[in-house]
Amino acid sequence: xxxxxxxxxxxxxxxxxxxxxxxxxxxxxxxxxxxxxxxxxxxxxxxxxxxxxxxxxxxxxxxxxxxxxxxxxxxxxxxxxxxxxxxxxxxxxxxxxxxxxxxxxxxxxxxxxxxxxxxxxxxxxxxxxxxxxxxxxxxxxxxxxxxxxxxxxxxxxxxxxxxxxxxxxxxxxxxxxxxxxxxxxxxxxxxxxxxxxxxxxxxxxxxxxxxxxxxxxxxxxxxxxxxxxxxxxxxxxxxxxxxxxxxxxxxxxxxxxxxxxxxxxxxxxxxxxxxxxxxxxxxxxxxxxxxxxxxxxxxxxxxxxxxxxxxxxxxxxxxxxxxxxxxxxxxxxxxxxxxxxxxxxxxxxxxxxxxxxxxxxxxxxxxxxxxxxxxxxxxxxxxxxxxxxxxxxxxxxxxxxxxxxxxxxxxxxxxxxxxxxxxxxxxxxxxxxxxxxxx
Length: 439
What we know:
Elements: H1 11-17, H2 54-67, E1 72-73, E2 91-95, H3 101-115, H4 125-130, E3 132-137, E4 140-143, E5 151-153, E6 167-172, H5 174-177, H6 182-185, E7 191-194, E8 202-203, E9 205-206, E10 209-210, E11 216-221, E12 224-231, E13 234-239, E14 247-248, E15 259-264, E16 267-274, E17 277-282, E18 290-295, E19 302-307, E20 310-317, E21 320-325, E22 333-338, E23 341-347, E24 350-357, E25 360-365, E26 373-374, E27 385-390, E28 393-400, E29 403-408, E30 416-421, E31 425-430, E32 433-438
C-alpha cells in the first residue's frame, strides 16, 4: 500500500538499505547490451483483479532461484485495506526479516542487484528492465518515477509489517507485470500498427536488425515515416524510406524515459531530457544537442508541437504541466494542470493538451484559459499518452492494462482497445491513415 512520504532523503538510513559492494548471490543477469527501458511512472491501483501477473510471479521465481524459497504474497482481496497494487496482482511482498543478520544481507543483495548501474552506464538497470515502479523496505521507499531522490522515508505506525521490516514490497508497472519489459523480451522492440490494417501490430525491423529502445517518438514528413528511439542514452533514427535502418544520430547521454520529435519548417527536431534539463537537436545543425534552459522536469513526460512558425514544448515539473516556446526564449511557464503524462495537438489553430491524472484523461485548450476538463476516459496508465487530429476529429491514445486504447471526440471519448499490447504509444498520420508506434 502506498503511504504518505516526507520529501527529505534520510542519509543515515541509506547505508542500511543499499550496500556499495557487489551482490554476493545476485540472480544471473544476461548481458542485454546498452538498450534499456525508461523508468516506470507511478500508476497506482484502480481496478481489482488479484490474479498474479506473469512478470510478478516470474520475478518471485528469480529471487527464489537465487536465494532459496522465501514466503511471498502477490494477490490481495478487493475489500482488504486501501489502495494497493496487490489487488491487481502486480505487487510482491517478499519475506525477509531486517532483524535477522543473514536475511538482512539477502535484502541488501537484492536491492543492490536491482539498483546498481550496469556496465553501459544505465542507472538502476535491473529495476528498469523488470518494470519496478517502487520498492519499500525498512521504513524507506524508492520511486522509479523520481529516481534522483534516492531512498526516501516511509511513514508507518511502527509495526514491523506496516514499516516493511519483515518483508520487501515490490510494485510493478503494467508493462513489468505483464512481462512486456526488456528483462523478458531481451529488448523493447518497436511495433507499428495502422488503422487501415485493423491495427495489426508488426515489428519494425530493418537491415540493421530490430528497431528498439526505451522510448519512442514519431512523425511523418514528405511522405516518409520517421521513428526515434533511445538506447543506452543514445538517440537513434529510423525511416521508412531507408528500410528502417536504425542509425545513431550522435546524440548521447540522455535519459531513456522520454523523447519527442517533430518536423518544423522542413527541419527535423528531436527533444530529449538529460539530468532534468530539456535539450533540442535538429537535422540542420548535425544533431548537435543544445540545452533549452528548461530544467527540473520529469524524465518521463515530454511533448512538442509546431504551430504558426513557433515550436512548443510541454513538460511536467513537480506534477504540473509547463509550456515553453521558441518565441518566448523557452521560458517555462506553469499551466496549473496536474498530470503524470502529457500529449499535445492542435485543431483550427487551438493548442490542445491531454493529460493523465489519477488514471483519468483530461483535456485543456489554449483558447479556454487551459480549463482542464475530464474526457470521461479512466483506468489508464499514468506513464504514456499520445494525441492527434484528423478530419476535424481529436484522437487520444492511452494504455490500460497493458493494451493501447483509442478514443476520439466524435464517439464521445469512448475508450476502445486496439488489441495492441505495449507500454508506450506514439501516433502519426500519413495519407489519412493513423499509424501507431509502441514498445
